[in-house]
Please model this.
Amino acid sequence: MFIIGFVIGAIAGVAGGFFGARAYMKKYFQDNPPINEDMLRTMMLSMGAKPSEKKLNQMMQQMKTQQKNSK
Model:
């Protein structure tokens, strides 16, 4: 009986930890987006490409679309 309770408790703890961490990370990335336009511009310049505003806007829009589709 003790072993069954231990196994059930371990499974519940793992599941609770997974979903809790997942919710925390979703909220963290909504509050602190990983990339903004300045970071993207710097990255493109460091790769040797001259970023135009049109290209930056397209890339940011693609990133936002991917982020919305992943939810």
About this structure: The chain has a mean pLDDT of 89. The radius of gyration is 21 Å. Residues 2-31 form the longest helix (30 residues).
